[in-house]
């Protein structure tokens, strides 16, 4: 059986790369595969074995649709995987990844809440841990060479374990030639006696975790197609089908972290799941966007993230009361950079470490409760309370001044206006 030295590299130009690395490192031919149990990764289990690898499958549970987890593991073993395990990372995803990004109010290109982007470095971390445990020196994934996920997987894995080798079959010509389409994959599975559900494909592809569902490809590649008419949404009802009555929900925060819904404390994943149900039944959280991928092309994506949409709205409302102007504005200037770093895959790097330390300090006063009112896809902030509120009604009131003396504004504006008065004298403007 051929060993991994015969497997072409990701660029198809350095066919001896893996063999040279194996000889240099003197390691066994084993690989950890990020495994979903679907057609693509089931084929990868068999194909990697054909190439001489012992395959260790890791199914990272991030809140995907309810499936027979036991059957998924047994399927991997039946195909020939040396080991197969499930790692429940739902709490970790929300607590250590989604909530810090929420604190930043980070949205890629001002709209996308990064539900898929956030998950990939966690999957990579789980797989690298498993590689360490089983002594594997390679990490394989099923992301394509056109998308963002390949970047997120590789950048995360190499940051955590610089010596790890990345096997991305869709970037290998040999693999693409063997499997130009779904038919060839199904034929391979039949020949290898790999059980798959040979159902017709939906007119799009989707990826789901407890934070959101993303939809892309297929009919959605035509930007004139209305995604609302193509997609079978899994987390939200259409706004026009939502109840004909308002629903209110209160969300409690401690230092910028959501901790309670309607007065009941929850774990991070349970809290998100609870809000998914509330937001979803009210048609909250759908977006349709043409975004700029890290690899340079534009792509069209449709997303639904009901729970996270509610959290972003409530968190922003609470910050308006508890953060001072200059600090909030500084955070808002940096937030797009954080969103880009998450989207591109730079989760594990010195810059992100420093930024996360900054946001933890920033968020210390962001404690309190926000009540949102929902109606047919719309969100209204109906109340905000915080023990750290910087809002003082007696100062802000138009009826009375409190400790604010309006005559002070005269000197303030004379000083602030000095530069423009000088400019107007030296360089008069036409009017």
How would you sum up this structure, described in words?
The protein is an alpha/beta fold and about 425 residues long. The chain has three domains: about 5-190, 3-Layer(aba) Sandwich (Rossmann fold), CATH 3.40.50.620; about 205-325 and about 365-385, Argininosuccinate synthetase, chain A, domain 2, CATH 3.90.1260.10; about 400-425, no CATH class. About 45% of the residues lie in helices and about 20% in strands. The protein is built from 16 helices and 14 strands. It has helices at about 15-25, 40-50, 70-80, 90-105, 115-135, 150-160, 175-180, 180-190, 225-230, 270-280, 305-320, 325-345, 350-360, 395, 410-415, 420-425; strands at about 30-35, 55-60, 85-90, 140, 165, 205-210, 215, 245-255, 255-260, 265, 285-290, 300-305, 370-375, 380-385. The chain has a five-stranded parallel beta sheet with strand order 3-2-1-4-5, with helices on both faces. A five-stranded antiparallel beta sheet has the order 10-9-8-13-14, with helices on one face. A hairpin with a 4-residue loop joins strand 6 and strand 7 (about 215). Helix 5 (about 115-135) packs across helix 6 and helix 12 (about 325-345) runs antiparallel to helix 13. It is elongated, with a radius of gyration of 26 Å. The N and C termini lie far apart (about 85 Å).
Coarse shape: elongated
Query: What is the CATH topology of the largest domain?
Result: Rossmann fold
Compute the number of structural domains: 3
The number of helices is 16
CATH class of the largest domain: Alpha Beta
Roughly how many Å is the radius of gyration? 26 Å
**What CATH architecture label of the largest domain applies?**
3-Layer(aba) Sandwich
Major sheet attributes: 5 strands, parallel
Provide the succession of SSEs: HEHEHEHHEHEHHEEHEEEHEEHHHEEHHH
Mean pLDDT across the residues is 91
Helical content band:
40-55%
The count of strands amounts to 14
Q: What structural class is derived from the secondary structure elements?
A: alpha/beta
- Our measurement of the CA-to-CA distance between the termini, rounded to an integer number of angstroms, reads 83 Å
CATH superfamily of the largest domain: HUPs
């Amino acid at each position: 059986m051929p060993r991994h030295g015969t497997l072409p590299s990701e660029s198809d130009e350095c066919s001896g790369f893996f063999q040279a690395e194996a000889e240099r490192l003197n390691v066994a031919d084993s690989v950890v595969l990020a495994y979903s149990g679907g057609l693509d990764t089931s084929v990868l289990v068999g194909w990697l074995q054909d190439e001489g690898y012992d395959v260790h499958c890791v199914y990272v549970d991030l809140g995907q649709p309810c499936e027979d987890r036991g059957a998924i593991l047994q399927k991997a073993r039946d195909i020939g995987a040396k080991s197969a395990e499930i790692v429940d990372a739902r709490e970790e995803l929300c607590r250590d990844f989604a909530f810090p990004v929420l604190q930043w109010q980070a949205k890629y290109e001002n709209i996308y809440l990064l539900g898929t982007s956030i998950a990939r470095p966690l999957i990579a971390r789980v797989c690298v841990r498993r590689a360490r445990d089983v002594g594997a020196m390679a990490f394989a994934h099923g992301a394509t060479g056109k998308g963002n996920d390949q970047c997120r997987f590789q950048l995360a894995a190499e940051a955590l374990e610089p010596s790890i080798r990345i096997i991305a079959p869709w970037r290998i010509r040999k693999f693409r030639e063997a499997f130009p389409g779904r038919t060839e994959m199904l034929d391979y599975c039949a020949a290898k006696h790999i059980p798959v559900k040979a159902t017709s494909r939906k007119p799009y592809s989707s990826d789901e975790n407890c934070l959101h569902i993303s939809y892309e490809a297929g009919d959605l590649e035509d930007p004139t197609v209305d995604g609302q008419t193509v997609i079978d949404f899994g987390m939200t009802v259409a706004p026009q089908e939502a109840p004909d009555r308002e629903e209110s929900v209160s969300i409690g925060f401690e230092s910028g972290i959501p901790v309670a819904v309607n007065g009941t404390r929850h774990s991070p994943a349970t809290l998100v799941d609870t809000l998914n149900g509330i937001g979803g039944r009210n048609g909250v959280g759908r977006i349709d966007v043409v975004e700029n991928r890290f690899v340079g092309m534009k792509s069209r994506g449709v997303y639904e993230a009901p729970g996270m949409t509610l959290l972003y709205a409530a968190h922003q409302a609470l910050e308006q009361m508890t953060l001072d102007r200059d600090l909030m504005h500084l955070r808002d200037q940096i937030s797009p950079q954080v969103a880009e770093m998450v989207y591109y895959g730079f989760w594990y790097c010195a810059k992100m470490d420093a930024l996360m330390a900054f946001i933890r300090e920033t968020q210390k006063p962001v404690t309190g409760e926000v009540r949102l009112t929902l109606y047919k896809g719309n969100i209204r902030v109906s109340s905000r309370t915080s023990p750290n509120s910087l809002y003082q009604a007696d100062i802000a009131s138009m009826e009375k001044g409190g400790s604010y003396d309006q005559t002070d504004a005269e000197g303030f504006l004379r000083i602030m206006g000095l530069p423009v008065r000088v400019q107007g004298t030296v360089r008069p403007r036409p009017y």
